[in-house]
Amino acid sequence: MSHLSSHPLSRYGWDDDWAAAFAPYADRGLLPGRVVRVDRGHCDLVTADGVVRADTAFVTPPDPARVICTGDWGAVDADGDPRYVRDYLPRRTAIVRAASGGRSDGQILAANVDHAVVAVSLAAEIDLARVERFTALAWESGAQPLIVLTKTDLVPDPVTVDQLVQEMESIAPGVPVLPVSSLSGAGVEAVSAVVSGGTSVLLGVSGAGKSTLANGLMGTEVMEVQATRDTDGKGRHTTTTRHLLALPGGGVLIDTPGLRGVGLYDAGAGVAQTFAEIEELAAGCRFSDCAHTSEPGCAVLAAIEDGSLAERRLESYRKLLRENQYAIAKTDARVRAELRREWRLKGAEGRAAMEAKRGRLR
Fold it and tell me: Looking at the domain assignment, is residue 260 inside a domain?
């Protein structure tokens, strides 16, 4: 057993590897602390002496993906007024999405996460493409995704719930899917068993039941919950900042605000993992650069033809690949050049097709 098992920060994820990485900072008299909340140039960190508030001026680079975030392990001044976070340890994993407003950088949502819990409400029709998007985001981070179907009490037929679980499993290969009732608490123990072994982050849109799930896992009302609209099952943003909570059954939970949009940011590996069955089929295509559109010997199109692969699934795969390529092109000149060449070829093909059509009509 690690000699750090009784360390005051062990319940927040502190271990021998973190201690080894922090050794140079300890030599400088700095204290380790895990970031539980970030707010306008300051952050709250839980340290061996309790929660402290520190200035983040030294860890505020221009790249939003590099700023200190909930879940980071910071090196904070032992004392002083104000106290400063001088640096943070290299991240094991990071949940990063594309920044809004068409910017080329990424935005970090949570750091050092072992499980990415995607909350999907059954109070409204499930958006399969959105679930795939969240799953790709989770896989890319290095965390293990987990899909939790919330509000199953609104689906009276257990057979229907089982069918929805199977549907989620079919679009998220390798991802566990667990149903949970926000009314009775059924299924919470199963989720708790998964997240008790590390740090988990809750992801999902507003009204997905993240705060209710957090309360269920904590065993107390720690997060405010607002009612969803009866008409469409949507809710308001109950959580406005990211909070890190130590779970009573073990593990750490980060609750996040509802995400209106989840743009992918250099997430090619995450997309490939999310659509693992298409990647596997593509290995059997006649051409290694097959685009799965009209090429002869395309194993992906053959699977659509025989019904073993849904066409919607391929369209979603293509869409996320294109989006990810555009995101990379914003900062990679080589990828931008490839895209321009692709657009020119498509333009030429389109013009040739129009000329051929006009020739037939003459």
Answer: no
